[in-house]
Design a protein that fits this description.
The protein is α+β, with helices and mostly antiparallel strands. Helix content is 32%, strand content 29%. It has a five-stranded antiparallel sheet with strand order 8-7-6-10-9. The protein has a three-stranded parallel sheet with strand order 1-2-3. The protein has a three-stranded antiparallel sheet with strand order 11-12-13, covered by helices on one side. 18% of the residues are buried.
Length: 217
């Protein structure tokens, strides 16, 4: 495989549509490679269920059946690849998939906003400006490139609100913007904007390392 395609991904494999839906029910995945004919739900039905949760996921069908092409593109599939699949065709397809992934990633970070609400104000903060969140008893502190703020709230509620493709928990008391991480050692991660060092716990360390690797795409 070309060096430019040698990246780190978190991958899952499922032998049926139902198994796939079970595996992704609590997580968000960016790229799906689906067959059409499977036991139980077929690939088109699975893609529709994926679309109910995520309009941006990149869905690629790899199948020997041509007759589902129209249905695939009605679901906004990225590509419909007919078997047999030649290595060169697959490599070219994955280059296009990665390029699209980059575009979605940049757009997501540049357009999404965090709504900060306090008793005295409501403020919209661009995701790209957020460095990290810190738990401080009943309050949460938010550190940004333009200033720091705090508000009353819980980390549990915060994590359900944030885009997990951009933010990651690294410690019981910290949630960081993945795109701001420079490196991770045994006990700390370095945030690039102000060279801040933040604690990383053993529980979350592997997730942080995967996040750094995925940002090399």
């Amino acid at each position: 495989m070309d060096a430019e395609l040698e990246h780190q991904f978190q991958c899952i494999v499922a032998n049926s549509g139902e198994e796939l839906l079970e595996k992704i029910k609590d997580e968000r995945f960016d790229i799906f490679l689906l067959d059409i004919q499977m036991g139980g739900l077929n690939g088109i039905e699975i893609a529709k269920k994926i679309r109910e949760k995520d309009n941006e996921a990149i869905i690629v069908f790899m199948t020997g059946y041509r007759k589902y092409t129209l249905e695939a593109f009605e679901i906004n599939a990225f590509h419909y690849l007919i078997k047999p699949i030649m290595p060169e065709k697959f490599r070219n397809l994955m280059k296009r998939v990665l390029k699209r992934f980059h575009e979605i990633k940049v757009h997501r970070e540049n357009t999404q906003k965090f709504i900060l609400k306090t008793q005295s104000m409501i403020m919209k903060i661009d995701y790209k400006d957020i460095l990290y969140f810190e738990k401080d008893f009943r309050k949460i502190k938010i550190y940004t490139v333009k200033g720091n703020y705090d508000f009353y709230g819980s980390f549990k509620a915060l994590l359900t609100e944030l885009d997990q493709n951009i933010f990651i928990r690294c410690h019981q008391g910290f949630v960081v913007n993945k795109n701001k991480i420079v490196r991770c050692n045994n006990e700390q991660i370095l945030i690039n904007a102000n060279r801040t060092r933040i604690s990383v716990s053993r529980k979350y360390k592997n997730n942080v390392i995967r996040a750094i690797e995925s940002n090399e795409l």
